[in-house]
Amino acid sequence: MSTIQTVSGPIDSSELGRTLVHEHVFILNTEHKENYLTDWDEEQQITDAVAKLTELKEIGIDSIMDPTVLGLGRYIPRIKRIAEQIDLNVVVATGLYTYNDVPFQFEYRGPGTLVEMPEPLTEMFVKDITEGIANTGVRAGILKCAIEHQGLTPGVERVMRAVGQAHVQTGAPITVHTNPAAGTGLIAQQVLKEEGVDLSKVIIGHCGDSNDIDYLCKVADNGSMLGMDRFGLDVFNPTGERITTIIELVRRGYVDKITLAHDANCFIDYFSPEHKHAIAPNWNYTHISKDVIPALLDGGVTEADINTILVTNPRRHFE
């Protein structure tokens, strides 16, 4: 057993329960909100989030991991207000989300830059995990980085190595946004391994966008868990094909490498709510519980397998 940091304080890993490993609460850039979302109603949005997360708890999910970091609009005071009103564990992240360059706040500071100094990103990430985020008293429980089809750009590599270094110093597990069509999960594993990361503590995110079983098995055989974590985003891979792929992975003996989520949110400033629903009508927190799990069971996955995927695997990610 291990201690896991949540927004509401530390819990024992045995209390994690059924867990969705990749769900955002808000994806909301503060600069964008303050300048352009003139009709933003903070209280209404918090009320709506409480209702959605309460429903998630009521249908049997006990915890979510929220990998919203710098670059995605992390704002812990809002998340704290929501967590105080729900009976759901929320584990938040530290890290940085970029597909290309580091933000200008770091462009000229760090190893090999204009201001030569130890990597400030590593220091930030470690502080978020060991001391807390922005004087909120909330400690990050996981680390997050990304590598998209652009591949290992200098900025992406710098962030990824800082995440790896923070993992080595703190033991916090890692989740990585990847593009399986470009094979970037394997690149992430190689870089993180070079930094001394225990790959069994890494979830390679968005593996569920792919039905390439050989690729998925390579990622799993390297030690990491597979993030089958975009259920409802049929624009990237239809639900039926995602389910078929999981059934085949279970058949091949990889049930202990599978994790589930939607990559959903209560609010995202990429789209209007109307556009979001039109693009992905099933992209919400309840799709897995209401639709996916019954379909997996119908396909031969057992209740014990579901327990492994939703309870044992996320718990092992921390232990």
TrEMBL record:
Keywords: Hydrolase, Metal-binding. The modification N6-carboxylysine is found at residue 144. Binds 2 divalent metal cations per subunit. Coiled coil: none annotated. InterPro entries: AryldialkylPase_Zn-BS, Metal_Hydrolase, Phosphotriesterase. Zn(2+) 1 binds at residues 22, 24, 144, 263. Zn(2+) 2 binds at residues 144, 177, 206. Its cofactor is a divalent metal cation. Belongs to the metallo-dependent hydrolases superfamily. Phosphotriesterase family. This is N-acylhomoserine lactonase. It comes from Gordonia malaquae NBRC 108250.
